[in-house]
Amino acid sequence: MKLFRFIFLMAAALICFAAVAGEDYTMPSGRVLKNAYVMERKPNGVVVGHETGVKFVKYEQMPEKLRKELGYDPEKCAKYEAEERRAEAARQKKQAQKAAEEAEERQELNVRRSKYKITELEDKIKATELHIERLKIEIPQLEANSKDYLNKAVGLASDGGGSEKTFSRGGIWGSSSTSNRSANRQEVKSRFKAAQAVGEEYSAIKFRLKNCQDELESKILQLEQMKRQLKQMKKEQETKADKKGGFLSSLF
Prior knowledge:
This protein has helices spanning 2-16, 64-69, 74-170, 178-243, 247-251, and strands at 23-26, 32-42, 45-50, 53-58. It is of the alpha+beta class. Mean pLDDT is 80; it is low at 6-20, 161-175 and 247-252.
């Protein structure tokens, strides 16, 4: 139906407005529309096709003679333009309302995002505080364990030294038998292995202790930074809420 209506209007326009069909039309501005022809008639003007495109020409831009030939009706024109203005005003009002709604939605979204970020940061602060507490418990334990292993290593070394002296006093010329000397050597080897194992455990504990101490220092600094950031975020949120007349409190 739309296509048929358009074709009908085109045909009617070409028949009724043959006065400008295929002719050059000079506009009040001096622009010349080459081979102009009427494509569509409206109450306030006509849509004119020409060599370089399409142009809408109002009746008020035409000579009086051409207006009459095209069937210009001032009352219909005024009524049509008034309706167009009302329609444009309604469209602009609708656009403004839509823009206001979108702005409000963005505002609500920003508030929710801000609240989420604050909650997320508070959770990180709690997790960091718990981690610091665990480190504060673990570090003294590691320090005590490192001392225990150090004492064990010293004790094994001392005992091993005493056995070596006994073995030296006996010597190959002493009264100790070959089996005793062999047993002493085996004991020294055993104590050396035990001392070596204790030393390795001690080194591992010291390494873990150093890592925990470094991590504790880092987490304390991180916690301080997060608390400052949280304070600033809450301050900004309160400022925005005051400016918006308590918008935040009414939303949540």
